[in-house]
Amino acid sequence: MATEPERDCPLCPRLVAFRETWRAAEPTWHNAPVPTFGSLDAGLLVVGLAPGVRGANRTGRPFTGDYAGDLLYRTLLDFGFATGTYDARPDDGLTLVDAAITNAVRCVPPENKPTTVEIKTCRPFLIDTIAAMPKLTVILSLGKIAHDSVITTLGLKRSAMPFGHAAAYDLDAGPALVSSYHCSRYNTNTGRLTEPMFRAVFEAIRARLPAQG
User: Fold this and answer.
1) Could you tell me which residues come within 8 angstroms of residue 129 by beta carbon, excluding any fewer than 6 positions away?
2) What is the DSSP letter of 90?
3) Model confidence over 191-213: pLDDT tens digits?
4) 5 in helix, strand or coil?
5) What is the distance between the alpha carbons of residues 140 and 120, in angstroms, rounded to a whole number?
6) Residue 27: which residues within 8 A CB-CB, separation 6 or more?
7) DSSP string covering 57-87
8) If you write DSSP's letter for every residue of 42-60 in order, what string do you get?
9) If you count DSSP H runs as helices and E runs as strands, how many of each does the chain have, helices first?
10) Which of 6, 42, 211, 213 makes the best surface tag, with the fewest CB within 10 Å?
11) How far apart are CA 119 and CA 111, in angstroms?
């Protein structure tokens, strides 16, 4: 079982070339596949699409260093899925509580858009990550592409579980799937996703995963 690709993962030529370009331009950045953040014993797994160039690709921690992370981590803290202080740095001391965060594609893609082939090629890591989480109760997918990738990862039919904001699916076996519009700056600036809408998703998740202690 391989839940994480190696640092110099060769599987996607276009992503390898993009990675090497950024390694040359910014040698102090992470510029490698971004590993899952949090414990595999968690009950909640948040699945995004892919690292952002100046976010996780720079910092090496999912959703860290860009606007989407500001909203995501603030909400995780508010609902007890994280403790500490989020300061957009991987060494800020923030700790997840009964939660983990990963991406459907672990390497940064040009223009934040992985191809269908790249999503498929990286999917075995998501499959193994989910399989390695014995207490997994809820998967939160951020955006339609992540949602569709999770559906395929679970071996289910996309047509039976269409993406929709705050959509929730109770599966016959395994974790429930909850979906949200991606917490990107574009979505929040255009009003497609408001903070109350995002918080409502976490209220539903918290109802399924009562806080411990």
Assistant:
1) 3, 36, 40, 45, 102
2) T
3) 999 999 999 999 999 999 988 75
4) coil
5) 19
6) none
7) HHHSSTT-SSHHHHHHHHHHHHTTSEES---
8) -SEEEEES---TTTHHHHS
9) 7, 8
10) 213
11) 15
Q: Which residues of 168-191 are buried (b: 16+ CB within 10 A; e: fewer)?
A: bbeeeeebbbbbbbbbbeebbeee
The residue type of 148 is D
Task: Count other Cβ atoms within 10 Å, centred on residue 88.
Answer: 18
**C-alpha to C-alpha distance for 73 and 63, rounded to whole angstroms:** 8
Q: Which amino acid is at 119?
A: I
The amino acid that residue 196 corresponds to is P
Token pair belonging to 101 = 């965060």
Dihedral Cα 36, 37, 41, 46, nearest 10 deg: -80
Residues 101-153 have pLDDT tens digits of 999 999 999 999 999 999 999 999 999 999 999 999 999 999 999 999 999 99
Instruction: Return the structure tokens found at 180.
Output: 């949200």
CA–CA gap between residue 213 and residue 205 (Å, rounded)? 17
